Amino acid sequence: MAETQNDPLLPGYSFNAHLVAGLTPIEAGGYLDFFIDRPLGMKGYILNLTVRGEGVIDNHGQRFVCRPGDMLLFPPGEIHHYGRHPEAKEWYHQWVYFRPRAYWQEWLAWPTIFAQTGFHRPDASHEPMFRELFAQIIDAGQGAGRYSELLAINLLEQLLLRRMEAVNESLHPPLDHRVREACQYISDHLSDSHFDIASVAQHVCLSPSRLSHLFRQQLGVSVLSWREDQRISQAKFLLSTTRMPIASVGRNIGFEDQLYFSRVFKKCTGASPSEFRSGCE
């Protein structure tokens, strides 16, 4: 039992750390040739990069085949049901389990293949960079030095930022810098209980009507809708990763009235803040 618990490649490992990383070399008929099955997911995130062969990810009857270069991100609570593709001889995948730093939230909002499972497929010019960063994270994370875990976390942060950079490069046309600055301004002022578009427009030197037009044209939503999404997203993040009192979570995103915050949160998510937090535990 003790040996199993000390090997992160086998069931029973506690993952009681800020970061654990490794390579899982699954070969047909080998000792690792079984499906991971965690119906309730994990408390932290798992980032997975296929390097050889093929794997399959199942989620409520849906299936995704991951091939070399594919990166998958499983957030807390997401179903984990994956293994070697039955028709593939092998599935080698690098992985990182981690508890994110608070300011990583935006970098962890990936496009999904189903449910909340995120997906990124780097283009050919970026793939070697991601493979190398993964290898460095694993090397640092398995080190015994005093700063090994911190180094691994910083390398992971670099990987997430490199992905954001690659995504931004692929945007066509690029996001208008005034819309980008408006988004940053709104994100920096989520705790403001009094909000108006005029203050954002003034910050980016546009009229409110022009900003509203650009915002909807480039992001597909209104300024107010985008802000509301950010507020609820921040609330979900704080509820799932901290023990901050619900009233404090509400104030953090600009709700002075806890009851009003709870009503808005339930309207957007289908669960009250306390119910949402209980579901993440």
Automatic annotation (TrEMBL):
Q: Which UniProt keywords apply?
A: Activator, DNA-binding, Transcription, Transcription regulation
Q: Which domain of life is it from?
A: Bacteria
Instruction: Cite the HTH araC/xylS-type domain residue spans from the record.
Output: 180-279
Q: Which SMART domains does the entry link to?
A: HTH_ARAC
Q: Mind telling me which InterPro entries this protein's record contains? A: AraC-bd, AraC_XylS_family_regulators, Homeodomain-like_sf, HTH-like, HTH_AraC, HTH_AraC-typ_CS, Tscrpt_reg_AraC-type_HTH
Listed GO MF terms = DNA-binding transcription factor activity; sequence-specific DNA binding
Pfam families noted in UniProt: AraC_binding, HTH_18
Mind telling me which Gene3D superfamilies this protein's record contains? Homeodomain-like (1.10.10.60), Regulatory protein AraC (2.60.120.280)
**Name of the protein in question:** Arabinose operon regulatory protein
